[in-house]
Every structure is written in C-alpha cells, then in structure tokens.
Amino acid sequence: MSYDFAIWESDASTGESDAAATFEELFTRYLEVDLVAPTAKMQAYSEALAARFPDDESDDTPWAAGGPSSNCSGPILYVAVSYSRADEVGVVAERLAQEHDLVFFDPQKAPRTPVNGGEVTITTSQGTAALPDRWVSFLSQELRNFDGYVVVDSGRDHAFAQARNDNGTLTLEYRDGSPRQHYQVQGVDLGDVAEALSQWAENHRHFINKHTWERLTLWD
Asked: For the chain, what is the total number of helices (H) and then of strands (E)?
C-alpha cells in the first residue's frame, strides 16, 4: 500500500478556493492523459526531491510507483510513497515545497465532501439495496453466485468500495478519489469483506491497514 502526495504551482489554481477541487482539476488535466514536460519551477522541485530521495529502483527506495521525474507533468507532481516511509518523505516534500513557493497537498487528509448530501447507496448484481443491519448475512446472499457483487458508494465523486465473487474467490476493491488511489485485494474472507464495506458506509477507513493492496491501473 502507498501514501500519496501532490505538489503544484500556486498560480496553476483553476479558481477554486478548495485545494481538493484544484487537485482533482489538475490531476485530470495533466496526469490522466499523456504527461507533458514539467514547468521550470516543477522541474527544479522534482530534482531537489530526487536529490534527497534518489529517483531509482533500489531496494531502499521510498517510491511505490516511480520517483519524481516520472510523475511530474506541467505544473503538478504526484508521487506514491511506501506507507512505512510516508512521514519521512512527507516532511521533506512539504519543506521543499515551501522553499520553492509551491502548494503541498495530502489527498488522504483532504475533507471528504459528499456530492449528494452524504447519502450512502448500495448496489448489487440484483439492483439497489437498503443499507443492511447485518452485513455478513447480507453479503453471504449477494455474493453466493460467481457473478455476484456489492458496491458501496459513500456519496463522494469517484469514491466507492466493492466486493465481488470471482469464480469462488472474494475480491475487495476500493477507490478513494483519483485513479491512483484505486486498489484491490483478492482472497478475502467474508468477515473481512463485511468489516470493510460497513466501515466504508460509515466513512471509516480502518480496514485499509489490515490488508496488502494491489494498485489498479487504467488498463486493469
């Protein structure tokens, strides 16, 4: 599992006062498409960060999905750090951002603003369902067939958790905003699935630290 940070130029703001909204706009514009050359300011920052934490594939690298040079596009840099080194890298990344007059943003700490009033919706292979009182019983029924699935949408854009029956194996998946925060874990037991989906419905994320996640890409 990784912990992600974003850094961008303050004058690249889209006019939104909310940092989370600005992040989503810049991420979509510069990172969900083919990367472009970084601006001079971002290039200087990227090099400074890589000087502190080398942009390589050594065993002790903190980078979970490529270093600064491979994740910088236009006025924004987005990096994924190994969870165990998030504090160490985050402190340095934030300090360097201040020195370079850049915005430092931690997506994991962004306010979770609902887009539909915070209404939780449950969708299954059978249709829309009410929020269950007994998750294990509910899931055992919905996931008993090989094509069964349950999706819990917590009311934020691009944020959901879901479980599915992949030919007898339960797979748990969640996306928490941007495409780079989209993960799955396979071979989960029913109790852990119930724990995860019930927590997601209540806007809790404690279950995340319990599993070893695989990041999903746009091509998965």
From this structure: 5, 11
